[in-house]
Amino acid sequence: MMRITLICCPFQTSYGSYAGSLKAALERKLGGPVNWLAANCGCGDPIEVERRFQTPDCTYFELPVPGGYRSSSAWKRVLRGKARDVSLYLRARRYANLCKHAELVHFQQILNGYGSKAVFHWLRQPSTAVRVVTVHELDADQLERPDTNLTYNLADAVIVHCEEMREQLVRLHVESGRIYVALYGAGLPTGRLDGPRAGVVFYGGHKLASGKGLDTLLQAVSLMERCIPDKMPEIKIHGHYGTEPPADAIRLARDIGVAERITWLNQISNEEMAQLYLSSQLCALPYTSGFAGLPAALAAACALPVVCTSKAALTDHLGSDGIWVDTNDPERLADCMMALLADGKLSREIGARLRKRAELFLSWDVIADRTLEIYAKAMARKPASPGRAA
Questions:
Q1: Is 286 helix (H, G, I), strand (E, B) or coil?
Q2: The domain containing residue 60 runs over which residues?
Q3: Which residue intervals of the chain are DSSP H helices?
Q4: N or C: which terminal CB in the chain sees fewer CB atoms within 10 Å?
Q5: Is the pTM of this model over 0.70?
Q6: Which CATH number is 170's domain given?
């Protein structure tokens, strides 16, 4: 059996959840173990600070990561930047050394200790392994210096979760033939999908106030309250931002006048997320940027209608079965949510279509098959890869 190592955040984040689910699905397909190599990322989020692991089943080490904040003093920026670069170089060397016996290494790029600098340093290390990078998000370093993105061409394959990211990497001069799209997956609940449902669920990701359309959602809730005061649904907010709602989010809900309508669920387990989506009446994702593959895929798997924008990879995951609204349009969002809440038959029809889509395109077994297909293409490409050390 091929020796595979995943490099990814090990904590209870959306990325840790992704790696854990992909690892389990790959192991089902391959009939053997997939290694998980991990380290602290230096993000400073509560989940990392408290070392709340997704799984203890990983090879883990720690190295300091100087923060990425920008000082007003030029010399401090230069000094901190050099310290950060040295730290990420040493980390990349450690990654390469700890997976030197793997035949294929799959690096999950996020930010900080798993950001572009760490990935690019890692790709420049001598290796006999096939190397695959999944780009979950781009960071400031690589956008400020677009020429550095040519380093992706040392990888045997680059995976993204949507066409928009693929096009952006091509604009950054990554060879199009190396880039493949593999959607974010979801587990398919096997219980009843037609049980009692109530309320609206909203996923706030890792940064609740950034690109999620939280202000649009809360304004839409205020409009709904005026139109259907006696039939107002519970608004349930969760995300990987920690165990407490951010103070600015609470303040915003209070300022808009809907604080009493919000139930802050904050960070919950994967199992609790599935139960939440199975018991909710609809999902609202008025994102303006970022990535919403996780809640979109889970909603589809749970036959839960989604009112959303066409941003954040939502069209890739929901196809033609999303209920589309423009960004920053609380009136339209409120109208669509009230229409679905009032029409149970329509909601069930949309939910059934989404569940079928999840079965065809979004289950973790389907995602594992797609990933193994990309691995095979990467292995076929390896002998012709330029700049690879023997």
A1: coil
A2: 4-185+364-384
A3: 14-30, 46-49, 74-98, 116-123, 140-144, 163-171, 214-227, 247-256, 270-278, 293-301, 314-318, 330-342, 344-357, 364-381
A4: C
A5: yes
A6: 3.40.50.2000
